[in-house]
């Protein structure tokens, strides 16, 4: 029976690694070195840390898993995950852990296989934005354009800017831009 428990534990570990490797937020953080020069090692360590977290805390709520993953991403990769994927990954991990607790190795294998097959190839490219200030400004803005590809189909992950609502739309006057780059927002009269 101990062999079956160890097999199930190994399957859970493989499922955790598959879920994390398929997570676009983590892929982008590793690919762009958000965790420093050891980003890849941190990503590998993350799998073991998440696995150990579940083993030490058998009755976790979904919110606790989300908080733990979010904290790890913030601390290790200096990344705040706001794309809505955190609850999805947390749910996947929690479901796999429930299969592990029941000893359902077949469901663990199937889930890990399914996650691996759905894995997106994510590529992030830096896009410099035009500014009215000096190009050498240390505080220059940079946006990340994220492109998901699945089976060769590419979709642009950048949200379009809202269109102006006409002549009554708010305009920013030069005196409203403070020296440190902040913009003063005034109430419409």
Percent of residues in beta strands = 5-15%
| Largest sheet data | 3 strands, antiparallel
The topology string of helices and strands comes to HHHHHHEEE
Q: Given the structure, what is the number of helices?
A: 6
Distance between the termini: 75 Å
Order of adjacent strands in the largest pleated sheet: 1-2-3
Helix percent reads 40-55%
Unreliable segments of 5+ consecutive residues: 126-141, 151-169
Anisotropy-based shape: elongated
According to DSSP, the number of beta strands is: 3
**C-alpha Rg, in Å?**
22 Å
Structural class: mainly alpha
Mean pLDDT: 76
Features:
3 strands; 6 helices; mainly alpha; 189 residues; single chain
Give an overview in words.
Helix content is 50%, strand content 11%. The protein has 6 helices and 3 strands. The protein has helices at residues 2-21, 24-31, 39-56, 62-77, 85-102, 105-118; strands spanning 121-128, 142-150, 153-156. Strands 1-2-3 form a 3-stranded antiparallel sheet, with helices on one face. Residues 126-141 and 151-169 have low confidence and may be disordered.
In short:
It contains six helices and three strands; from the N terminus they run H-H-H-H-H-H-E-E-E. 50% of the residues lie in helices and 11% in strands.
Secondary structure layout plus pairing:
Layout: H1 2-21, H2 24-31, H3 39-56, H4 62-77, H5 85-102, H6 105-118, E1 121-128, E2 142-150, E3 153-156
Helix pairs in contact: 1-3, 1-5, 1-6, 2-3, 3-4, 4-5
């Amino acid at each position: 029976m101990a062999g079956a428990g160890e097999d199930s534990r190994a399957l859970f570990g493989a499922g955790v690694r598959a879920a994390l490797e398929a997570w676009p937020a983590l892929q982008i953080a590793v690919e762009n070195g958000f965790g420093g020069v050891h980003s890849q090692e941190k990503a590998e360590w993350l799998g073991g840390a998440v696995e150990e977290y579940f083993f030490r805390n058998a009755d976790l709520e979904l919110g606790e898993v989300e908080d733990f993953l979010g904290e790890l991403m913030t601390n290790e990769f200096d990344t705040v995950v706001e794309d809505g994927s955190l609850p999805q990954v947390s749910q996947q991990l929690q479901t796999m852990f429930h299969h592990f607790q029941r000893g359902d190795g077949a469901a663990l294998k199937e889930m890990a296989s399914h996650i691996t097959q759905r894995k997106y190839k994510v590529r992030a490219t830096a896009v410099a934005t035009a500014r009215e200030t000096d190009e050498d400004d240390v505080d220059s803005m940079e946006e990340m354009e994220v492109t998901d590809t699945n089976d060769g189909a590419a979709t642009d992950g950048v949200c379009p800017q809202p269109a102006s609502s006409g002549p009554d739309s708010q305009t920013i006057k030069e005196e409203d831009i403070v020296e440190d780059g902040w913009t003063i927002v005034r109430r419409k009269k």
